[in-house]
Here is the input.
Amino acid sequence: MNASVSVTPLNSPSDHSMPLILDSLPDPAIDERGCPRRAKLQIDLILLAIEALDLGGSEAILAFAEELDLKAIVKNRVNLWRLRSSNPLRKAHVRRPLSIMEAKALVVIACYIARRLTVLIRQLLLIYQQMSDKQIPLEQNLRLANYLERFKAHFRSRMHHRRSVVLALNSDEKLNQLAMDLLGQLLFCTGTSGMQRFWISLFDGEVE
Amino acid sequence: MNIQRKYSLPNCTLLLEGISDPNNAAAAMDMRPLLSFLLNAECYLSSLTQPLTGDRAFFESLVKAVSGYAQEFLSKIPHPEAHSEESSLVKLQKIDKNRHRLTVYSGGQVQSAQIRPNSAQAPIQVDLTTVQLFDLVEAVDQFFADSQTLPDLVIPLQPVSKRYVVGSGALSKQVVPATVGVSALAGAAAAAFFLVPVPEVRPPQPKTQEPATSSETTINPTTAANSTTTPTPTPTPPEASPTAETTPTTQATATPTTEASPTAETTPTTQATTTPTTAASPPSVSELEAVFNSTNEITVDSEVRQLNGKLRDEVDKAWSKDTRKSLDEDLVFRVAVAGDGTVIGYKAVSKTANDYVSKTPLPQLLYNPATRNNVNSEPIAQYRVVFTNKGVVQVSPWWGYGRKPSR
Here is the structure.
């Protein structure tokens, strides 16, 4: 095989210093390196929802990386941006794999932030429910409107409008729905096993 | 003495009543004794005036459906446990973007196991909002997290298998030949992953068994515990360093191949069930490995160049017009050819390439190594073949020109 040529040494430094917190997430039985496309997409979008929810969201991501001892993986702003740019929908999409460990770190951070925002997430979902039951336009609620506006702005400024998935999300209504779907997912992330559930769901349909 | 356990959330309360194992004397002394036999389960939902009640079969079915549906909610990929076979007492399904329908068969008064599920009893249906659904999931998860209550009832969280996504076995068969390629390729990483317990995909349980023996079907505390909290001693694949490999093309798929021959043997040969006796059957993993491991490589530049052109022409000719324009992204393969230009092996370099191998002419071009006896000793040349999404075939020597493969 001429293995020596292409082998990446297994003892790369990051491998040994794997933070303990990541052990709570099992390794999926996927037969490839790095995360599947949907996982990369989903992780970035859930972080985007957090940013739309919380003005200091992007700061919080880095702060939690520090707090959770994940600095070795999510090093700084640029590094975080590079990890998130593995999302194939991004304008600045870099064709780099997102390793399982990097994905775990981002998921752990997202779920910790989500937990901190539990009350807000629940409230917004309840408001949404009431407004759609009564068929009142969502914009009439200031808090919900703020979240949706910020989400749409983030999404449009960062995602490539020529990607087919993005093209399909061409109306405010569709983007609002995506934002609400993500909010529902964030709520699930706050639960007792939310982190594990969210993590495992990223690999649905990817394993044998 | 009956023990009660309560898991309470704003929109949902689970109340479990049971007894501890009478043979376990230590349990009686315990402040919070182990609830090991469930007598009755009640599930109070804010949108229902009456609780849903039932025995263990009901409760198991409930937690299974809830757990599966929670996963489906997150991934949007149908989960077999959420709305499974008819045998299940509880089902959950999405009815609109914000509503989830919980259906309980024979619910309401299942006091004993004698009452047959799916009997004349009309099923109970409740529509839950996302927040209500979450409270139900959370109550169930709090129950799972409680080691003092029915510790034998464990539902491992596992990704839904590919096989369920398409919903038929036909696809999984199709996938096998391609998988042969990739499993060998993923090398060390794949070998590590395969040590992880294989996700058990429970086949649909026979209908008749469910009410009576349902407790046996799911309970498997040891294996379940293993797979949920997999303490894998194996290294996760290190982050790919895209520089490790000098690729002649700038195309796509940053996944560099890491191939460690020592571990190659551990790739599951079970996947290659078809023995290469018929012309159409794919080569087994070991054979494929053997091909790529061949020490006998063609290194003379002129020959490599000549074969390069030959391979390009052949692939180009064989690539049908229909599939040519149908690729979403570039697919990269590592292809081994014999001195006469026949393709004797290929491997997908990326997952996508593996998935879409059928859109390339490679499977048709593959010469069956079984009909050649001494494939290992035959000199080969290896190429990188890229099928671009523009419908162009690019072929370049795997090791480049003018250098011997270092070994």
In short: The two ends of chain A are 26 Å apart (CA to CA). Chain A touches chain B through 64 residues (CB under 8 Å). Chain A is about 60% helix and 0% strand.
